[in-house]
Amino acid sequence: MNSQSPIRAAFQQQRATALRLRTSTAAERIAKIVRLRDAVIARREVWYKAGEDDFRKPPGEVDLAEIAPVIAAANHAIRNLASWMKPKGVWPTMMLLGTRSHLRYEPRGRCLIISPWNYPLNLTISPLISAIAAGNTAILKPSELTPHFSTEIRKLIADLFTPDEVTVFEGDAVVSTELLELPFDHIFFTGSPAVGKIVMAAAARNLTSVTLELGGKTPVVVDASADLDLAAQVVMWSKCNNAGQTCMAPDYLFVHASVKEAFLENCRKQLTAAYGVTNDGRTHVPFLAHVVNRRHTERLKGLLDDAMARGGRALTGGVVSVDDCFVAPTIVDGVDFDARILQEEIFGPLLPIVEFHDLDSVIDRINAGEKPLALYIHSTDDRAIQSLIERTSSGGVCVNHAMIQYFHANLPFGGVNHSGMGTASGFYGFRSFSHERAVVRTQLSMAPKLFKAGEVPGWLRNVLNRFITWI
Ligand code: NAD
User: Fold this and answer.
1) What is the DSSP code string of 97-137?
2) pTM of model > 0.90
3) Residue to mutate (ligand 1; options 119, 176, 179, 291; most atoms within 8 A of CB)
4) What are the chain's domains?
């Protein structure tokens, strides 16, 4: 009797397939991506229902942030894969004149994709598209916090792939832990920095390469020159979308003292126009997602209570219903930097505001924290924009907008250090799931000569000396 666990058995089964896929063609990989894309589109109603059942995710947001990015990622790969896969010729250097070299993108092999709950379909299937494009097998582990999505993803994959190529294991950290013991060729993890460290430590035991798409505290800067209408619209949209449960959502906001009141007034208008006047009314609007579960709602309540206890004021919202997993969009003013809301990733519709007078203090503050996933700048002053970009670090930057950098398939998406390492999206996703292999071919006779007792003759030393100064 075979006593191997289902996870180990699946991993074992994928070995032969991974070797076979090494020689798969662009056309074969594209055919799989087309089938996957079409099946995602055909199940639209399934995703709406899973969104509603898991955390009342509005259908419009399922369209925009779950289905559309998957379709866009698939179409981009379908259009470009043949050129991504082509070996890239490389010029010889002086040292290797006479050789011909190229870089080829070979599949890594057996890959593991662990995904979070906040965009369950997109953040599981988009990396899978990159993995398939690069010619790999994959095991997927979606989040236990969105069980309806996870089950539907499992069914989708079971309908399209045999388990020796792509398969899904549902479950929590126990399942992840068992998966992480295996010597995968690559792990693509999306989730929190805390679990990212666990994943990286586990990967190190097998010397498995990792892509870590993590989170953190993404700052927004609204300076005195900003278009305040646009800034309020963008900030409120990006903070309320998915109820702020987005890795690259604005986490906290610096606003110049001279425009603070006008900006906040615009923010209030945006919230009222979108969700109505009363908090009670806002709990029932169909286009405001809820918090994923009770534990996270209590966590957000804890952040808000701590901010209030430290002298913070809720300028809007301020209402939390733990039973209903609801947090009203809340702007919090007057909080000091020791408050938990300015220390921990918020991941909810709470927005602490920090007033500033000079840009240097903002830059110092950003640099005092971990490097964030994104930096958002609202300004029309090119020098201020340049200064913020040059003197800080973040995964990406977006000027006069937010979150749209994720949708730009010709740009890499990813964090830096605490907010992640490695990249997703388009060619960069394909590259993450590929090994860049260097191939050098020589036609001339360049065989090294062995010298007696390792001693290089004088004439050769002279030639080498001249050569070294020449190159
Ligand atoms: P999480 O880290 O708690 O969970 C992510 C995945 O890891 C889940 O599948 C979960 O089951 C698994 N997991 C949990 N504990 C584990 C453990 N001890 N060992 C192994 N695996 C474990 O993250 P989450 O709550 O699902 O998602 C929110 C976090 O993800 C936020 O920090 C957010 O910023 C980040 N995020 C980042 C991106 C990005 O693209 N950079 C996208 C979405 C979310």
Assistant:
1) TTEEEEEEEEE--EEEEE--SSSTTHHHHHHHHHHHHTT-E
2) yes
3) 176
4) 6-214+419-437 (3.40.605.10), 219-414 (3.40.309.10)
